[in-house]
Structures are given as C-alpha cells and as structure tokens.
C-alpha cells in the first residue's frame, strides 16, 4: 500500500501591514502553492512595490524547501531581461523569501484562456509567443532551463508578456538529465517526463503547447492519460500518475479555431513534436519560423 504524505497544518496568511523585516511590509496576499505564499510588499529600501515569495512557517524547518528558496533566488539574480521577472534578492532567516519584481496585469491563462479567448486574435497569440521566446532565449543564455513554461507562468500586461516562476528551473549543460520530473503534465516534453537527456528543445515544447492553446482557443495538442507508477524499493505500490499520451497525433490548431491560420498552426505542431530532433532546437529557431510564417499569411512584421 502506498504511503500517504503527511499533511502539514497550514499557517495563517500574513495580514496587510505585517512587516517581514524592517524593510518589507505586506500589502496583499496574491496567491501561492503548497509550500509558499506570494505577497505584494512595499520596500522602503527600494522605494517601490515588490513581490515576495515567502516560505510558509510550517516548512521553515524543511531543509529541502529552504534550499529551493535559495536556488530560485540565486537563479533570478542572474536574469535581466524585459520578458523575464527580475530578482532583487532573498533572505533565509525569519520568513525565508525571494524578493522580486512586482508584475502588473494578469496571467496569460486568465487573459486568454479563462472564457476571454474571443477578445483576442491570432496576432495577440503571436505577440505572447514571441515575447516568451525572447525571455527563454535569455534564460538559456544564462545556462538555465525553465522547465515549466505555461500560460499560468506568464504575466500579460498591455500587450507585453513576462515569464516568471523559476521554482523548478535547473542549471543546464549538454547531456544533462533532470533531478526529478517536476513540471506541469500538460506542458512537459517526453524527455522531461522520462527524466532523459534534456536541452533547450525541452522548453520549446512547453512554449509550443502554450502557443497551440492560444491559437486553438484552449485545446491541448495531446490528451492526458493515467499510467501505473513503479513499485518502490520497499514494496510500496506506486499507484497512478498523469502523463501525456504522446502516441496521439495532434491536429492543427485551426481545426479547433478556424480563425487561426494553418501556417501558424504548423509552427505550433513542429514545436510539440515528440521526437526532439524534429522540434525547433531553440526558442530563436521557433521565433524565426513564426515570424516567417506570419509574414506569409498577413504581411505583419514584428517589432524589435
């Protein structure tokens, strides 16, 4: 029988006005995940509004969770690009946290894919995809893989897209495999799911799924299926887990949304190829092909 993970009692959300230290005062709770909460905070030192990813108190004695905060905070300090969230620092003492740029707007998931798709056209989808590709190019140039590219991890404001949430990002060099299969099932490349050799093309897959969904009006290229986990070393049954059915052949996004040009759909389809050798090797290749296809269908030329 599989062992159940012990559920920790959730600490209260910090109230507006609470001081994390003598610099940061909580303004608003923005959301969070199992181990962290995200707050908007005012910083006296920076004289601006920032966002703080704060480790919940019940996890502050978890060395692995503390190390995750440290690693993500250090990675963010290496990134400086208009399409990537900016990191300002971290603190591992009381209220361990990452201090970063406060992004205005809403996530691409909320803007495009939560009942609002009709308010946008394929040119908006292209703009978002190109912005994310530019951000990923910078991330890769710093020797990193993001590994969780998805609409919920891209902020959208006044036509500008910014990639954030580097909680599963990893250092990368040729031939690397992943520490684990962290990521979001619907956006994970086959080599990421299988913990095999990864590369820039692994993030291209996530970008491709994002672009496919924007073109199709929310549909995914591959369905999700349940598979049986392996039994562990002490005999515990693995149960089941979700993964993509990579054997299913995706259709052009224009099948789901006739307003999406087939030529742009072909770019999305190449980006989500199961065989990584058939995918775009880098976000730059994806962008070049997308810009070429867009000119062919509408004569539009992207900005700098």
Describe this structure in words.
The structure is a single chain. With 304 residues, the chain is an alpha+beta fold. The chain is built from eight helices and twelve strands. The chain has helices at residues 63-76, 108-113, 122-141, 190-193, 200-216, 253-256, 262-271, 283-298, and strands at 24-32, 36-43, 48-55, 87-91, 97-101, 106-107, 144-145, 154-157, 160-163, 170-171, 224-228, 240-244. It has a five-stranded antiparallel beta sheet with strand order 1-2-3-5-4. A three-stranded antiparallel beta sheet has the order 6-8-9. It has a two-stranded antiparallel sheet with strand order 7-10. 38% of the residues are buried. The model has no long low-confidence stretch (mean pLDDT 89).
Keywords summarizing the entry:
three-stranded antiparallel beta sheet; alpha+beta; 304 residues; Phosphorylase Kinase, domain 1; 8 helices; 2 domains; 30% helix
């Amino acid at each position: 029988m599989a062992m159940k993970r012990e559920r920790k009692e959730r600490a209260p959300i910090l109230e507006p006005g609470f001081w994390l230290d003598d610099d940061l005062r909580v303004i608003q709770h923005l959301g969070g995940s199992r181990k962290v909460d995200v707050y908007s905070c005012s910083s006296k030192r920076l004289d601006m509004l920032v966002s703080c990813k704060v480790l919940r108190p019940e996890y502050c004695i978890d060395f692995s969770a503390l190390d995750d905060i440290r690693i993500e905070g250090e990675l963010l300090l290496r990134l400086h690009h208009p399409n990537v969230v900016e990191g300002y620092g971290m603190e591992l003492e009381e209220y361990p946290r990452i201090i970063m740029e406060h992004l205005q707007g809403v996530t691409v998931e909320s803007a495009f894919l939560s009942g609002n798709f009709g308010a946008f056209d394929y040119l908006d989808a292209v703009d978002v995809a190109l912005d994310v590709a530019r951000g990923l190019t910078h991330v890769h140039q710093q020797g990193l893989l993001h590994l969780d590219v998805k609409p919920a991890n891209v902020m959208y404001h006044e036509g500008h897209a910014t990639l954030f949430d580097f909680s599963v990002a990893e250092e990368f060099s040729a031939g690397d495999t992943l520490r684990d299969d962290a990521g979001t099932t619907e956006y994970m490349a086959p080599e990421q799911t299988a913990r095999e050799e990864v590369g820039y093309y692994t993030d291209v897959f996530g970008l491709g799924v994002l672009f496919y969904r924007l073109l199709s009006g929310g549909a995914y290229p591959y369905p999700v299926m349940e598979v049986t986990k392996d039994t562990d070393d002490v005999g515990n049954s693995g149960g089941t887990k979700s993964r993509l059915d990579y054997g299913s052949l995706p259709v052009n996004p224009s099948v789901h949304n006739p307003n999406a040009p087939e030529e742009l759909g072909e770019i999305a389809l190449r980006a989500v190829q199961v065989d990584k050798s058939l995918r775009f090797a880098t976000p730059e290749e994806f962008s070049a092909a997308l810009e070429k296809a867009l000119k062919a269908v509408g004569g539009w030329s992207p900005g700098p």
